[in-house]
């Protein structure tokens, strides 16, 4: 199992931004992940450009498509 998994637990149920291959970006609430970094995002929005977002609901993102994952909210 990869070393990043314990750190991923801290991100559960928090809003994250995910930069994907192909210069795509989505934002949503992290609801799950596995050892391959496949992630489940809920209330997901695809960021298509300034003032141009597309609501896409719940999605599964394949781990090898994830380029950058960052948290958008502070820990409470």
From TrEMBL:
Tell me, what does this protein do in biology? Plays a role in pre-mRNA splicing.
Q: Which InterPro entries match?
A: Lsm7/SmG-like (IPR044641), LSM_dom_sf (IPR010920), Sm (IPR047575), Sm_dom_euk/arc (IPR001163), Sm_G (IPR034098)
Q: What is this protein called?
A: Small nuclear ribonucleoprotein G
Q: Name one Pfam family in it.
A: LSM
Location(s), subcellular: Nucleus
Principal place of residence: nucleus
Q: Which CDD domains match?
A: Sm_G (cd01719)
Q: Which one GO biological process term can you cite for this protein? A: spliceosomal snRNP assembly
User: Lineage of the source organism?
Assistant: Eukaryota, Rhodophyta, Bangiophyceae, Galdieriales, Galdieriaceae
According to the lineage, what is the superkingdom? Eukaryota
């Amino acid at each position: 199992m990869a070393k990043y998994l314990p750190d991923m637990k801290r991100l559960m149920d928090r809003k994250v931004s995910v930069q994907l291959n192909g210069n795509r970006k989505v934002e949503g609430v992290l609801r799950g992940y596995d050892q391959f970094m496949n992630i489940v995002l809920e209330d997901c929005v695809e960021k298509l450009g300034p003032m141009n977002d597309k609501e896409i609901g719940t999605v599964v993102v394949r781990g090898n498509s994830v380029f950058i994952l960052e948290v958008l909210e502070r820990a409470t």
